[in-house]
Every structure is written in C-alpha cells, then in structure tokens.
Amino acid sequence: MRSLRHPGPPAAERVRAVPCRAHRLSLTLPAGSSVNEAVTGALAEAGFASGFAQLDGVAISPMRYVIPAPAPDEAHVAWYSDTRAPEGVVTVEKAAVIAGIRDGEPFIHCHGIWRAADGVRRAGHLLPHDSVVAHEARVEAWGIEGAAFVARDDPETNFKLFSAEVAAAGAAAREGGRPALACTVRPNGDISHTLEAACARNGIPEAAVHGVGSLIGVDFADGRHVPSYATEVMVASGRVAAGGAEASLDVALADMDGAVHEGVLLRGGNPVCVTFELLVVASAG
Fold first, then answer.
1. Structural domain harbouring 111
2. pLDDT tens track for 70-121
3. Which of 17, 182, 187, 232 is deepest in the core (most CB within 10 A)?
4. Is residue 87 part of a domain?
5. Angstrom distances, CA of residue 44 to CA of 47, 136, 234
6. Is this structure's pTM higher than 0.85?
7. Residue 273 lies in a domain
8. Count: domains in the chain
9. What does the longest C-alpha to C-alpha distance in the chain come to?
C-alpha cells in the first residue's frame, strides 16, 4: 500500500479511539460571525466543547480556503496552497466539521464542497477564522461527552493535529445520547480497516461515521484512482456494517490541482496522509 515518510519518528500509537457519548443537536449559526466562532459558540451554548457539525447549505462571505500543495521544504510531506478567495457569497454544498480545542481556544477543522457566484464546484480546507457566515443558518451536529478533540504538536508529522482524548464529564452529565468513539488516525494505515478494528475493539457493531482528514491518493470502489499524494477529504456518508465487519465511506475531496472527486472508498486501498479525525456514532444503544 502507498505510504509517505514523515519528518519525525513514527508514533507507537497509530489510532486513538476514545469511548464517549454523542448527543444529536440542531445549531443556529448567526450571520456575521466567523465560521469558527459560529460553530464553536453554538456548540458551547448547547454545553459541548467538542463535536461534529455539517455545514450543508450555509452561505459564506467572505470565503477563504486552501487546497493541498507540495511542501516548500523537508519539514513536512505536504503543505497548503495560497489562500483562495472567491468573490461574493459562496454556498456550501456539503462540508464536515470536527470541533475541539487548539491553544486553549475553540477551533474547527473543516473540509467541504462549495459553489461561488460563477457556479463552479470547488473543494478544499476552509480557513475558519477568515470565512464569515453570510446569513443565519441551521445545521445538524453532534456534541460529545466524555471525550474531546485537542490539538497537540505532533512530532511525527510536524503539524499541530487534533488528538482524541478522554475528557471529564461536565458538572451535570447529560442523560441519553448514543455510544460513540472520538477517533484520530495516524499516517499510512488504511482508513477503512483502521476504523473497522477500532469499532471491533470497542464493541460497536454498527455505526454512522463522520469526519475529515487526508489520504495518500485515493482509490474508489468503482476503479477510479486519484494520483495526488495529498488530498483534503470529508466523509459525506459513512457506515460500519452490522457486526463491525465492513466500513463503507462515501467521501468528497480536493486534490492538489483543486479538482473535486467523490465516491465510495475501496476498502484496503486508502492510506492516511497526515491525519484523519472521526466521530463514530453507534446506531443503537
């Protein structure tokens, strides 16, 4: 399977899967706030510091984003393009957000697909502090309890990456919710097989999968191949089948040329590039 040599020593722990409970939410994003402030503020108002949100249909202006690019030196295996700044109001078609904490402040990691005024579909990595919600929007989300995504300096990749960590329950633990896993995956392992193993170890036989990350090229189940060695990926629709035997990940992504690709990943053929961050929510329980 494809692999990349990162600048630092490989970490012994290749996946972190922290059991938690996920609570379904509907959040209101206020107009005029940065996307980072809007999402993390709405989550905090609901009582959560970490979670997942879908930005489908949200209007953004200004919109700022990047796509993957070659690294300028040997300090990283890949980097980011110059900032892209489409004119006018940009409408998100679909986008996935992992929310957590970075440098002691609320922070989101967002990949998605959007259309600007010219109607062309583009994809990439949203710059959350520089992109602003243009109109009040209602979005679907999950807040998590018992785990958190916390950005840490990662010696292996030389990036600051979200790490799934155990978090103490609030003063008043919520009732309900579903069993879930907050997961962060390190480079070079196949994303589907890694996910299946994490679910099996943690007794989750069937689940919905949400998240964002990067892959070293992409092989789709229908035979298509994306050769770009760095990609920006969102899970558009993901599931682990009954019994935890098989993961099906329908993704959307941008490659290093900015092209948009979509489809179901080939199991066993898609190694992680830098990181993958996932919220796995059990179908019942």
1. 21-142
2. 999 999 999 999 999 999 999 999 999 999 999 999 999 999 999 999 999 9
3. 182
4. yes
5. 5, 17, 23
6. yes
7. no
8. 1
9. 50
